[in-house]
Amino acid sequence: MTAIPPETFRPQTSHPVRLQTAGLADAAVISALQQGCFPDDPWGSEAVASLIGQPGFFTVLALREGAEGDDPVGFLLARVAVEDGEIIAIGVRADARGQGLGRRLVAAALDGARTRGATALFLEVAEDNGMAQSLYKSCGFFAIGRRPGYYRRADGRVAALVLRYSYTGE
Ligand SMILES: CC(C)(COP(=O)(O)OP(=O)(O)OC[C@H]1O[C@@H](n2cnc3c(N)ncnc32)[C@H](O)[C@@H]1OP(=O)(O)O)[C@@H](O)C(=O)NCCC(=O)NCCS
């Protein structure tokens, strides 16, 4: 039997995943997902709760529906300040990646920011995170800047690319 390289393996699941607006009561769940997705910069549930509680923030959870209840597999943290939206973090649990959930969460960020009055949506992505960069670029984001040494890594620091999506085409 021919082995399928992990980077091309797209697992299938019969259980649907729904996106749902989240709130303060979900801080611990979001913290656990964040820590699994960003081990070099883990956020505790109090830190997540203090973000969610700020004006302009919105949060989405991706929940896989199952006989034993909902299984949280992804999250989005975003905010809008005046006309600028920002994706603070997006993550999909490792065993749920490659099934279109990241793309659905980016779409939820774009929709959520637009309905809250944003004319552009910004984010930072690590220069060594090619997977996230290709996701954002395929959703219409463009690089507009670079912040050297922005992210911590176990073996040093890595730059962030600043990406922007324009709702107006400008
Ligand atoms: C980035 C992340 C959110 C993508 O989630 P995902 O559910 O796997 O994404 P999707 O299945 O929707 O794939 C969207 C796109 O990402 C890219 N992508 C996904 N898996 C990939 C892989 N194994 N190799 C290369 N590109 C890949 C592709 O462009 C893909 O588009 P396509 O399906 O049309 O080819 C997820 O990998 C993750 O949580 N990573 C850790 C946290 C992180 O880096 N967050 C973003 C920080 S800014």
Could you please describe the fold and organization of this structure?
This protein has a seven-stranded mixed sheet, with helices on both faces. The longest helix has 15 residues, at 101-115. Mean pLDDT is 92; it is low at 6-10. A hairpin with a 2-residue loop joins strand 3 (69-81) and strand 4 (84-92). The chain has a single domain, classed as Aminopeptidase (3-Layer(aba) Sandwich). It is an alpha+beta fold. The protein is 25% helix and 39% strand. The radius of gyration is 16 Å and the shape is globular. It has helices at 27-37, 45-52, 101-115, 130-138; strands at residues 17-21, 57-66, 69-81, 84-92, 120-126, 142-153, 156-166. Bound molecules: coenzyme A (COA). Coenzyme A (COA) binds next to strand 4, helix 3 and helix 4.
- How are strands sequenced across the largest beta sheet? 1-2-3-4-5-7-6
What percentage of residues falls in helices of 4 or more residues?
Answer: 25-40%
Under CATH, the topology can be stated as Aminopeptidase
CATH class (first level) name: Alpha Beta
Q: Helical segment tally?
A: 4
Question: SS-based structural class?
Answer: alpha+beta
What ligands can be seen in this structure? Answer: coenzyme A
Rg computed from alpha carbons, rounded to a whole number of angstroms: 16 Å
Shape: globular
Provide mean pLDDT, rounded: 92
* Fourth-tier CATH superfamily name: Gcn5-related N-acetyltransferase (GNAT)
Strand content: 35-45%
- Give the termini separation: 51 Å
CATH architecture: 3-Layer(aba) Sandwich
For the secondary structure, the number of strands is: 7
Low-pLDDT parts are 6-10
- Pattern of helices and strands: EHHEEEHEHEE
Main β-sheet, in a few words?
7 strands, mixed
Tally of separate domains: 1
